[in-house]
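I am writing to request your help with a piece of structural work I have in hand. I set the record out below, with my sincere thanks for your time.
___
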Amino acid sequence: MRKYVLTAFLLFLLFGLPKISLGQKNISAQPDSFFLVARDLAIQGEYQQARKICFSILDNFPDYHDVRVLIGRSFAWEQKFDSARIHLMQVVQNDNDFIDAHLALLDVEIWSRNLPAALEKINFILQNHPENLDYRLKKAQVLFKMGDDVKAKTQLNYILSKDKQHKAAKNLLLQLEHKQHYNFLSLDYSLETFQKPYVKNLHLASLEYSMVLKKTTFIAGFHTGFSNINNLSGNQIQLQAYPVINNKMYAFLNYSYGFKSIFPKNRAAFELYRELTNAFEVSGGVRYLQFGEDTAKTNIYIITGSISKYQGNYWFSIRPYLSPKTFGISQAVSLEMRRYFKDSKNYLFTLVSYGNTPDDPANNINNLEKFQLTAASFKIGYQDYLSKRLLFQIKTGLSVQEYQASKTHYPVDLFAKLYYLF
């Protein structure tokens, strides 16, 4: 209670009195007290108010570096990273040994996903503080984010050799061990069902194998399906590849071939992904679908792309689908959100879409009419570990879907997948 009373009193002295000179006089007498008030305001999210106090302190004490570091951090917390760098670099230029400014700059580079600069900064910090385990952990975290697992593990092992109970290092090492299972076998099953205007159950199952060769992940898959409508069934083989082009760009390639009528005859995809600053990623590519049998084929080309953003433990992505030609294909868009927990493989997710999106596994069927009709859906799912090597994903959803023009029904989707990591 006394803390809040003191905060209110100091703010009154600074902003409530009619003459600013009196406020400046009080700052001159009690700069540390006003700094603590500014820090509390910044922690509460009152960034502009906090910076007003900080700038007033700097008018009297221009070398009060803690104050300018707080200004820089407040800009960083608002994701105004360029403004944060300006103030933090000013501290470094005046006093290159002021460690808090370097640590703040390190956080700025990490949060803006400028990882090479972050690695350079933590290396500089460790030159002067080689035995500091917290700084070693920071370096391990940067290396982990950069995908340099070997060097990250070296840092973590060093930390644990000095402190066997270092909780953060143990947790990150566990994430690293999970991440190093690049290869996997997976088995999944999905069901789309509805009761009106007739009963339909579409069963789809897949078996996939993933392996990494140099810088490319390959995934080979076999899909099978059955529908109670006309007793349709069929199989499909698929090959996917994710080649890494450089540390900021990778690609996605996919080709599938369907046997019998339940799957598209041919299906292909190509897309380029590019990582940007401020935790953004963009992509652009094309999907190809061939519907029908040999006597009546229809070729569809769909342009797609995405804008994705990491925000703390959350990931957001929006993806539109546009057909460059008028085949009667409905344009579609999907929005996905993930909330991560232990690591990148453990998350809760929701998926909202309008239109029938070609990347939805439930739409991997030989049904051109489905893409010509209006649809909207909401799905929610969860992925987590059953053990060190077993991973599962479950998903369910409800759609509002046209089955004829202006006539709708409500299919329910169920999906389950099991991974074995090795």
Residues 17-22 have pLDDT under 50 and may be disordered. The longest strand covers residues 232-246. The radius of gyration is 28 Å.
